Amino acid sequence: MGIGTFLNQPINPTLATKRTKPLATDVPLLLAVIALAVLGLLMVYSASWDFSMQLYEDPAYMFKKQVLWMMLGALLAFILTRFDYHLWKKYAVYLMGLTALLLVAVLINNEVRLGAVRTFFGGSVQPSELAKLVTVLYLSVWLYSKREQLHDIQLGLIPLAVILGMIGGLIYIQPDLSATATIFLLGGLLFFLAGGDLRQIVLFMIVALAAGWVVVQFSDTGQARLISFIAGLKDPVQAEYQVRRSLEAIINGGFFGVGIGRSVTKLTGLPFPPTDSIFAVLAEELGLLGALGLIGLYGILLWRGLRISDQAPDQLGRMLAAGCTFWIAMEALINMGVLVGLLPFAGNALPFISAGGSNLLSTFAAIGILFNISRQAGAMAPAGSAERRNYGATVDLRRRNGRRRISRPDCPASR
Fold first, then answer.
1. H-type helices in 146-257, by residue range?
2. pLDDT at 358 exceeding the cut of 90
3. 3-state secondary structure of 188
4. Do the domain assignments include residue 192?
5. CB-based burial label for 84 (10 Å; 0-12, 13-18, 19+)
6. Is the pLDDT of residue 19 over 50?
7. Range of the domain at 169
8. Residue 234 class from Cβ within 10 Å (0-12 exposed, 13-18 middle, 19+ buried)?
9. Which of 103, 247, 343, 368 has the fewest CB atoms inside 10 Å of its own CB, making it the most exposed?
10. For the purposes of burial, counting CB atoms within 10 Å of the CB of 196, is it exposed (0-12), middle (13-18) or buried (19 or more)?
């Protein structure tokens, strides 16, 4: 029987070998991403018009920039959807090197914004956002190549700590504590997913907690944030100013919200309404119902991303899909958790919603990688690979020794 032909039609062997099986798109994930992107544009315009008018004398200035970044992000996602994720094994090292150079360059450039050195071109480009995605790509490839040696601490945990220390250290110097913590969380998660030794994982957690304690003790910013967080847990009135205003916006929104564009808090001192605090604006204008809807969309993204990871053809695909998915979900969780006072203050963007090009491009790139892995779900690993998956294969014992054939797992007789 030929591949991709109609019944009873002659087959051209040359064409049959060249013909590929059509690859499906993960529709729930696509719809969730579209809904998040549209909601993000709507909220950026609503949250930024006053800010844009004051600084640029154009109420749609930030909105138009966000539309441009979103178009570029969608194009990047489309390209990466068709970029075989196995090719990252060739380019991950170069991409990590470029990221490290950008992190050094941003320190040399010394463009100070809000007391930190993190950006180029007036805040338009932030290398630490790229570093999060590149960490997922590089560590997935590196851990995949070392999967047989991860039990050896000298070949597994120690090199991992060096890699994370190099990237995390460059980000910490900026300083960007939240991005540094995100890098280490992603590293530990990928090490676990790669099958790292349990004792090494426990050791990694202990060392990470100890390093976090040291950072807090020697960082004025870290101490201030931790003290404010603990005070806010005891009494919300003592929380960070941004958290207090965010809670005010959420309470003002009630269940159904005050309506799109009618937020009062964004006009009366809510810090960074188009970026860090945009979830508070959304909760005020769309209410608890809208906030739950947003969380539901992230839930769909998490569900489909983990589903793609589970169905990936090999361990590299599984780690890439899980890493990209957990990174996006982690960013959303941290942003929303901070604004309701459940997590220490951090400057993480809300994926697809917050204004800003770097995070948006990185997030769309991660989505493109997820779609590429999804399109290859069910494909065979290379012949001879230890990871070769036997989809619907049968063990033919009938001709060899007369015993009947073992039924497939998806065969009705085996259910």
1. 157-172, 177-193, 198-218, 220-234, 241-253
2. no
3. helix
4. yes
5. exposed
6. no
7. 85-218
8. exposed
9. 343
10. buried
